[in-house]
Design brief:
The complex is a heterodimer of chains A (300) and B (245). Chain A is an alpha/beta fold and 300 residues long. In chain A, 36% of the residues lie in helices and 22% in strands. Chain A is built from twelve helices and twelve strands. The N and C termini of chain A lie far apart (42 Å). The N terminus of chain B is likely disordered. The N and C termini of chain B lie far apart (37 Å). Chain B contains seven helices and five strands. The chains are: A alpha/beta (300), B alpha/beta (245). The interface between A and B is medium-sized, with 31 and 31 residues. Chain B: InterPro entries: THDP-binding, Transketolase_N. Chain B: This is Transketolase. Chain B: Pfam families: Transketolase_N.
Chain lengths: 300, 245
């Protein structure tokens, strides 16, 4: 089984053959994977070396000429390190592009905090016009990437090693999908959190929504689900900084008496290495931790 | 050899109004429309002569071709102090000189840093230092990827702006990548806090660029430098003007 990052490389390599406007810009990360595509398309697979300000600036410069750039590296070095380039070279210049990150919040725990970017989506939330995809399966990553390549807008695709057992049909425009229906509240599972959320809510009378496109936030779908339950109690479970979507969820529920619980990666550094499962447990994102906090939040 | 750009392309539809004949001697008056003071002589504007020579004699872009994929691009990276840039654009008909007195006001497209969405002819918005050169690298890469190897891309930076590390990422990549379409104009008014011991041109040359240093007030020397052949390598022109302080 390939990872989301493997699938990204194979899909983008194929799309380079089909879409003459497409370019891939790299900063050494994944350069080996793209080596065959680079041999076929030397002018459209660019590796700038370990230079992330240039990575983002050059991608935006290609967009200024009408190209559709995919800009890729680890999330820490794609969104956090060159954040002003993301803000100005894409946003202020008003050009489109696709940022594809890997490693996410806790994909390489033995690598430590330097390779963790739990704040990436919250940072992008300070900017206008970014669509944010958080696929939960390689098939979903492929579908969302193909969709993004066909557009002209600014898109962030957040890939992870954490994934759900089964893929679901996803599309950026179709909103959150209903996985389960219940009366005591609504739990929104973002991307790779779905399997743990389903395990955590087994036997609970709650609605579970599945979200792979989190920006724009499906306010209508959340309102509909929350409005149909006995109380508009909503839990958002995200694989990045806890509470990242609490504000948009609150805005979606503005006209309903509501409560929102934001679960995700804690703000405090763990300063631990180890395995992804250990970090999920430490952040309370394993099924047991989730169940404890969700049942503690819901009314009896 | 380069073409002059005094006349609009004749085959464009919607026949643009006849361009004024640009005159370098008109620039102080145009700048005064923005600064409101005649005391700002051209010498106070470090970029003025180099911008004039570029737009008047080197760049193959006119008001009629600002959206033409095959045009030359000029990216003003050092967005601070854009009066000379606006004056040169207005003198060449990219926008109405009547806009100049509104400089910096709420309803004006002309800010103290340019915005490409507001200023006709501006290729990028700038103001935060160190963004233009990476954008120019990407512009060259984008043109090359589309088989557009004729358009030239120019970016203007300042010697103090060169402090920003993003420039050095771009310089170090563009040389080995052989981006012949890329041209960097460094206006050197000795304003970098720690200076550039060993010279600015050497930073480019050691990264595989052709680099020349000229008198930034000498129009013929600037023209000669701007049109120097540099096969297979990007070109840097360091234009030295009076020290800022």
């Amino acid at each position: 089984m390939d990872t989301m990052r493997d699938r990204f490389i194979s899909t983008a390599s194929q799309l380079l053959d089909e879409e003459p406007r497409l370019a891939v810009v790299l900063a050494d990360i994944s350069a080996d994977g793209f080596a065959p595509a680079r041999r076929t398309h030397p002018d459209r697979v660019i590796n700038v070396g370990i230079r992330e300000q240039l990575l983002v600036g050059a991608g935006a410069g290609m967009a200024l000429t009408g190209m559709r750039p995919i800009v890729h590296t680890f999330a820490s070095f794609l969104v956090e390190r060159p954040f002003e380039q993301v803000k100005l070279d894409f946003g202020h210049q008003d050009v489109g592009g696709i940022l594809v990150s890997a490693a996410g919040s806790y994909d390489w725990p033995a690598g430590g905090f330097t390779h963790m970017a739990p704040g990436d989506v919250a940072l992008l939330d300070t900017l206008d016009g970014w669509t944010v995809h958080v696929p939960g399966h390689p098939d979903e990553a492929e579908a969302l990437l193909r969709e993004a390549v066909g557009g002209d807008d600014r898109v962030y695709v957040r890939l992870s090693l954490q994934e759900n057992r089964e893929a679901r049909p996803v599309s950026g425009g179709s909103g959150f999908s209903v996985v389960r229906e219940g009366r005591r509240g609504t739990v929104i599972a973002v991307g790779p959190m779905l399997d743990n959320v389903l395990a955590a809510t087994e036997g609970l009378d709650v609605t579970v929504l599945y979200a792979t496109t989190v920006r724009p936030f499906d306010a209508v779908g959340v309102r509909r689900a929350a409005g149909a339950a006995a109380t508009a109690d909503v839990v958002v479970v995200e694989p990045y900084l806890a509470g990242t979507s609490s504000a948009v969820a609150g805005e979606a529920l503005l006209n309903l008496p509501h409560r929102v619980l934001g679960l995700g990666v804690g703000r405090a550094e763990l300063r631990r290495y180890g395995q992804m499962e250990e970090h999920l447990t430490a952040h309370g994102l394993d099924p047991r931790g989730l169940r404890e906090r969700i049942t503690g939040f819901l009314r009896p | 050899m380069t073409n002059t750009t005094a006349a609009p392309a004749p085959d464009r539809q919607a026949a643009p109004a006849p361009l004024p004949s640009p005159d370098f001697r008109d620039l102080p008056r145009l700048i005064a429309l923005m600064t409101g003071a005649e005391k700002h002589a051209p010498a106070a504007h470090s970029t003025l002569d180099a911008l004039w020579v570029l737009y008047n004699r080197v760049l193959r872009v006119t008001p009629a071709t600002v959206d033409d994929p095959g045009r030359d691009r000029f990216l003003l990276s050092k967005g601070h102090g854009p009066m000379a840039y606006y004056a040169v654009l207005a003198a060449h008909g990219f926008f109405d000189k009547a806009l100049l007195p509104g400089f910096g006001s709420y309803d004006s497209p002309l800010g103290h840093h340019p915005d490409r969405l507001l200023v006709p002819g501006a290729e990028i918005g700038s103001g935060s230092l160190g963004h233009g050169l990476p954008l120019a690298v990407g512009t060259v890469l984008g043109l090359r990827a589309q088989g557009l190897t004729d358009p030239r891309v120019w970016v203007l930076i300042g010697d103090a702006e060169l402090d920003e590390g993003s420039n050095h990422e771009a310089i170090a990549h563009a040389g080995p990548a052989g981006l012949e379409q890329l041209h960097t104009l460094v206006i050197d008014n000795a304003s970098a806090t720690h200076g550039w011991p060993g010279g600015i041109a050497s930073r480019f040359a050691s990264a595989g660029w052709d680099a020349v240093t000229v008198d930034g007030r000498d129009h013929e020397a600037l023209y000669e430098a701007f049109t120097t052949p540099h096969p297979g390598r990007p070109l840097a022109v360091v234009a030295r003007v009076e020290p800022k302080n």
